From TrEMBL:
Protein name per UniProt: AraC family transcriptional regulator
Molecular functions (GO terms): DNA-binding transcription factor activity; sequence-specific DNA binding
PROSITE patterns in alphabetical order: HTH_ARAC_FAMILY_2
Highest classification ranks of the organism: Bacteria, Pseudomonadati, Spirochaetota, Spirochaetia, Leptospirales
SUPFAM superfamilies registered for this protein in UniProt: Homeodomain-like
Keyword Transcription appears in the UniProt entry: yes
Segments crossing the lipid bilayer: none
Top-level taxon of origin: Bacteria
Coiled coil: none
Keyword Transit peptide (UniProt): no
Domain annotation HTH araC/xylS-type: ranges: 167-265
Pfam families: DUF6597 (PF20240), HTH_18 (PF12833)
């Protein structure tokens, strides 16, 4: 039986607006695949006779396989924001791999995928068009997930012990907002800095510093969306920035707008 997961609380930009434009759902993977798959996700929209909507997210440090009619792909980590134009009526179905967990399938440094997309059949022996037909001939997620899992189970690699180790590090970064530097991770996990960086480049596709900054920016975006007024100088210091200007520069480089301009777009 398919088990539903709660809605995303971070990562979706302008979340309140996004929820009005499309239906988001997430589901746990079966026990056989849970080691590798964080969850499945779907987005459905019906904007017929309505203006298109540009949905944007701040991606997590994960690889996704996204099934989209005629355009299904493997997505490496996007360092900036990820955008997708919703128009007409449609849906997409995604597989979110746990950080580092795509490496055993790919069998190459995952950093080769960062900022790029790849055809699914470049990694898996599969007729993508036929798989798309099977997935999209039903509207029900309860029917789509078994189709995807049946395919994935034919490709399960051996469990790599580096994956739970990497996820324990990333979980610490995600849950402990006091973690603001790579040096803290080095001390907490008793690992050499260079070894940590090599591990992340090979398995995750981005540096540990990028992961720390991304999760802290998730917190910033969430605070901005939930507040009418934000003390950006105080927020910058709270996030470990030495000055407000550096924080604003990082935010703008990632989101595309300064914090104050972004605040205005969320209301």
């Amino acid at each position: 039986m398919v088990k539903k997961k709660g809605k995303p609380t971070r990562g979706v930009l302008r979340q309140n607006k996004a929820e009005l434009k499309a239906e988001h759902a997430r589901y746990f993977a079966s026990e056989d695949l849970d080691f590798f798959i964080e969850h499945y996700w779907t987005v459905r929209w019906d904007l017929r006779n309505k203006d298109p909507y540009l949905a944007e997210t701040l991606p997590y440090p994960s690889i996704h396989i996204v099934f989209d009619k005629g355009d299904s792909k493997i997505y490496g980590i996007t360092k900036g924001r990820f955008s997708y134009l919703l128009e007409g009526k449609g849906s997409v179905f995604g597989i979110k791999f746990r950080p580092g967990a795509f490496y055993p399938f790919f069998k190459k440094h995952v950093s080769l995928l960062t900022g790029k997309t790849l055809g699914i059949d470049q990694v898996f022996n599969v007729n993508v068009s036929q798989l798309e037909i099977e997935i999209f001939e039903t509207e029900e997620d309860d029917d789509r997930i078994p189709i995807v899992e049946s395919w994935l189970k034919n490709h399960i690699p051996e469990k790599d012990p580096n994956i739970p180790y990497i996820n324990s590090i990333i979980d610490k970064i995600k849950e402990d907002r006091e973690v603001r530097s790579v040096d803290q991770i080095v001390k907490l996990f008793s690992i050499g800095k260079r070894s940590l960086q090599r591990l992340f480049q090979e398995y995750v596709g981005v540096s540990p510093k990028w992961v720390i900054q991304r999760y802290r920016l998730h917190e910033v975006a969430e605070k901005i969306e939930k507040s009418e007024k934000v003390n950006f100088a105080e927020l910058a210091l709270d996030l470990g920035y030495y000055d407000q200007a550096h924080f604003i520069k990082d935010f703008k480089n990632t989101i595309g707008l300064g914090p104050l301009e972004y605040l205005k777009t969320t209301k």
